[in-house]
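Sample A.
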Amino acid sequence: MDLFIASDRQLPIRYYVNEAIWIRRGCFSPPQLTLPFFVEVEIKNNDNLSIITQYIREFQCQYKYTEMQILVKDNVIYTEMEVMLNDQLLSNHTITIHPLSK
């Protein structure tokens, strides 16, 4: 998995076949995750990272408040996600992003 997204609310699964992104229910929970619901994300092409931020925004728009954690395996993806999420955060939602410890 390239990254994990955890939340205090149930996260939807998505398959973006043309963009080679799979967001599916997690079966392995890293110890760093402290929120109850999570998905594993597999990305074959880093050029499509904006789809992940769009997925997060669509999820946030469904609720008044959410708490999310994102754990990222790759440093390049981590840096890009951090920049993209800081630019697009909704004020009443909390997101923390961390590198996945090995």
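Sample B, a different protein:
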Amino acid sequence: MQRRSYQTEDEGSFLLDIIKIAIGVFIGGLAAAFTYEAILAYRTEMAIRKVQEEVKAQADRIERQDARRRQAESETRDAAQLEADQLRSAKALAQRLETERQQRKDAAWAKFYQPSPNCKIDPGTTPCANEHMVARKRFEGQYVDR
């Protein structure tokens, strides 16, 4: 019989078991590291999404405020334009009424004052100027616009 060295089957499998355990610990460590990295990536992604939502909400608020501001400016501009149009219209009406009043007064003056035959020939004389001033004063005193 041959003699065998003192080595049992368990000792060979013991070394193999230690290698298996080391590989298992290594793979478990890798799995834990990858899981940790995945959790960090997930948290980072969630934080980015939250920041993006906040930025979008802030941008929406700013856009709404800007729209309200533009609307208010537009309404102010429209109101100013309307007021300016009304003022122009009122001035035009006042000018037209004043022109009509002046035309009526001139027509009334033409009917009221008829220069004498001597003043029709030479209106630049002193008696004609005096006659004109007296007639104008009397006309102004009694004229009533209708």
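Observation for Sample B: Residues 9-112 form the longest helix (104 residues).
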